[in-house]
TrEMBL record:
Its main location: membrane. CDD domains: DsbDgamma (cd02953). This is Protein-disulfide reductase DsbD family protein. Residues 1-19 form the signal peptide. It comes from Sphingoaurantiacus capsulatus.
Length: 691
């Protein structure tokens, strides 16, 4: 689908003002060259389109892969003359955010044959004009470009131009060798299998198959090569299509004894594929290497730890961390107990992050478009969190008690209770942290999706470790604990003050529930909160009168009650509502492609009702009349994507940007460049975009 948006953008390119034999655009240099300056009447003239993208940018093969668009050529020739289809050199693989593209990152020459009419008189002019449209991209941005090129030739003897000999020789050498081998393919379940009769099959050490048609293979899937008798056998993940009778493409092979890969232009016919007899190369992700994977994983892990650490100052996590630190200061635990609580808290956080990460990876492997905080797109989860925040707030306010440290029991129970409370506090902290994606987290979580599953899980574990690190340090560094305020009567007052952000969080969750499930869903949630409050008040009275701790039983019953009550709640698609005063349109990839093709400045942001950081920005910088006035004066179009409920289109776009969560703020300039803004916005930062 992405490639069709790119093709649409190409159609919107303005026509070049003048035709020359070469053009230098912002991201690409192009030139039209002919093998002969005096083509022979009735003969064929070979012409080349020389395309050279700037460093770190690329153009596309005829089948661009998961994204992109091929170069389009429209010829204007003398009457009776015709041009062949473009012949492309063997492409390279390029992987970004889990998408595989077939590209050219260096100078490449596309060849075409022009058949001239026999009636051309010697010395007659032979004008050759071509209108080119192409897409040029780097790993973050795609820009459609175009040019009209012209050569003024003269009919003659057809002799080759010596100045062009090497260029055309190199261009032909870069083409795959056309062969008529009896290549066969078949679909076996969700697998695509290919058999190639190749005399040097035993010397093949690796390779890649580029299908020239869609619907054959998953482009980014690993391709494994093996021997099948005297044939070379390839196997990879199949695409959904099953109607193909033939699959043309380029087979690129690494063969012992050759300095450069060998490329063959093949046409595979539907038929039998023999079973593998021996592997010849281990499957590897295309376009990647062990070194690159290790470097990417290391950087993603560091970013995840840093992002998790910064989450502790986010409004969705800080009250819980403060509460746990308060309990540690009050309990006066021993060194061993403090370390045990620190480890238990860390275990709760890390295991929750691993569980969420594993579920995300499993769902994405099954074809679902989900990202970080995906569980908050289910109104039943929001309703449960709402009741949990109400219960915690009532506890902090003193309505009932939870003896987190387990005091009043024996020593063993005290130790067990303290660690258990720390563990579940860690679970809660990790779970409610998912509405936030602080600095560093976007890149880390985006990389976790694209990396191998085991490495991706390590990144999620790193996120949990960073989130748990402050409390872990409190448990293991006595000097830090000594800096905590001394216990006293003030702690009870401070605990009641901490109930305020919990109740504010509950109010926010109730609003999100109303946005997701409508008035009926929010009414059910409020009714459950009222009954839960009455039940906890009754439990608190019994605690005060009998001196017994019924709270764990009460919370367990309340949790079951909440699940039963909110289970009928279902999501309803609410209109995107933003606190910003910017005049915004609903985001769609088609709309964004149209605006960027027209070179209009565009501000794109993604929000959700459960994203606290998003709402802070919308109340602040995005809600500023100064920003709205500056954008209006500069003609900036604003697009907003609402991810409150699951939306696979938004999830796919975030993945294409290497992101797995929100907020995300992007500014597309008229010159084609795009800037990703920080997750905490200021008025000066936004107005500076158009200053």
């Amino acid at each position: 689908m992405i490639r069709w948006f790119a093709a649409l953008a190409l159609l919107l390119l303005p026509v070049a003002a003048a035709a020359q034999s070469s053009a230098k655009l912002e991201h690409t240099s192009v030139e039209l060259v002919a093998e002969s300056a005096r083509p022979a009447p009735g003969g064929k003239l070979t012409v080349g389109l020389v395309m050279k993208p700037i460093a770190e940018w690329h153009t596309y093969w005829v089948n661009p892969g998961d994204a992109g668009a091929p170069t389009r050529a429209v010829w204007t020739l003398p009457p009776g003359a015709t041009a062949s289809e473009l012949r492309y050199p063997t492409p390279e693989t390029f992987v970004v955010a889990g998408l595989m593209n077939h590209v050219y990152s260096h100078e490449n020459v596309l060849l075409a044959e022009i058949a001239l009419p026999a009636g051309l008189a010697p010395g007659a002019p032979v004008p050759v004009t071509v209108k080119l449209d192409w897409l040029v991209c780097d790993d973050e941005l795609c820009v459609p470009e175009g040019a009209t090129l012209k050569l003024d030739l003269t009919a003659g003897d057809g002799a080759a131009d010596p100045a062009q000999d090497k260029r055309f020789a190199d261009a032909r050498a870069a083409l795959p060798k056309a062969v008529d081998w009896p290549v066969t393919f078949r679909f076996e379940g969700d697998r695509f299998q290919l058999a190639v009769p190749f005399a040097q099959a035993a010397k093949v050490t690796g390779g890649h198959f580029f299908p020239a048609v869609e619907g054959a293979i998953g482009y980014a899937a690993p391709q494994s090569f093996s021997l099948a008798g005297d044939k070379l056998r390839l196997e990879t993940t199949a695409e959904a299509a099953r109607e193909l009778k033939e699959v043309p493409g380029i087979l690129k092979l690494d063969v012992e004894g050759y300095d450069q890969p060998l490329s063959f232009e093949i046409v595979a016919k539907l038929g039998d594929v023999p079973a593998s007899t021996a592997p010849i190369a281990a499957a590897a992700a295309p376009g990647s290497s062990e070194g690159n994977t290790f470097q990417t994983a290391a950087l993603a892990l560091l970013a995840a730890v840093a992002g998790g650490l910064l989450l502790n100052i986010m409004p969705c996590v800080f009250p819980i961390l403060s509460l746990k630190a308060l309990s540690l200061a009050r309990s006066g635990t021993s060194e061993a107990e403090a370390r045990r609580e620190g480890l238990a808290y860390t275990a709760g956080v890390v295991l929750t992050c691993l569980a969420l990460g594993g579920l995300i990876l499993a769902l994405r492997a099954a074809g679902a478009s989900v990202g970080w905080a995906f569980q908050l797109q289910d109104p039943r989860v929001i309703a449960f969190l709402f009741l949990l925040m109400v219960a915690i707030g009532l506890n902090l306010a003193g309505l009932y008690e939870i003896d987190v440290a387990g005091r009043g029991a024996g020593a063993k129970l005290a130790e067990k209770g303290g660690a258990g409370g720390a563990f579940w506090t860690g679970v809660l902290a990790a779970f409610v942290a998912t509405p936030c994606t602080g600095p560093f987290m976007g890149v880390a979580l985006g990389a976790a999706i694209a990396l191998p599953p085991a490495v991706g899980l390590a990144v999620f574990a790193g996120l949990g470790f960073g989130l748990a690190l402050p409390f872990l340090l409190l448990g293991f560094v006595p000097a830090l604990r000594r800096r905590l305020p001394k216990p006293g009567a003030w702690m009870d007052k401070f605990r009641r003050i901490l109930s305020i952000p919990m109740f504010m969080t509950a109010v926010g969750l109730a609003w999100v529930l109303g946005r997701q499930a409508g008035v009926e869903g929010m009414t059910l949630g409020l009714a459950a909160a009222l009954l839960l409050g009455l039940a906890l008040w009754w439990l608190g009275r019994r605690q005060g009168s009998e001196g017994r701790n019924f709270a764990p039983l009460g919370l367990a019953a309340a949790a079951l009650f909440a699940v039963l009550l909110v289970n009928p709640v279902t999501a309803t698609r609410a209109e995107a509502a933003s606190d910003a005063v910017l005049a915004a349109e609903t985001f769609s990839p088609e709309k964004l492609a149209s605006l960027t093709a027209e070179r209009k400045p565009t501000f794109v942001y993604f929000t959700a009702d459960w994203c606290i950081t998003c709402k802070v920005n919308e109340r602040g910088a995005l809600g500023s009349s100064d920003v709205a006035a500056a954008f209006d004066k500069a003609g900036v179009t604003t697009l907003v994507g609402d991810w409150t409920n699951a939306d696979p289109v938004i999830a796919a776009f975030l993945e294409s940007r290497g992101r797995n969560g929100i907020p995300l703020y992007l500014f597309y300039r008229p010159d084609g460049t795009v800037e990703e803004l920080p997750q905490i916005l200021t008025v000066d930062r936004l107005t500076g975009l158009v200053a």
